[in-house]
Amino acid sequence: MSENICPQCESELSWKDQGYFCDYCQQKVTKTAFCPDCSEQLEKLQACGSASYFCNHCNELKSKSRVKTVFNIVAD
């Protein structure tokens, strides 16, 4: 089962034009990561094919498995 689910219709999201897209709702969707410790928005760092998350509030890297991700419909 995919973990990239539309927040509106709960369909699986696809990847189009460098972002998530719900084919059923015909809407662009953003994915935002939040710190599991302080709930602040995280900065995504990508290097050498892997992704990490950094919390500017806690001033430390966060494990991808602990990060809370939220999907939101992009307003036109």
From TrEMBL:
Q: What is this protein called?
A: DNA ligase
Q: Which UniProt keywords apply?
A: Ligase
A GO molecular-function descriptor = ligase activity
Q: Which domain of life is it from?
A: Bacteria
Name the source organism: Photobacterium kishitanii
Known Gene3D superfamilies for this protein?
A: YfgJ-like (2.10.290.10)
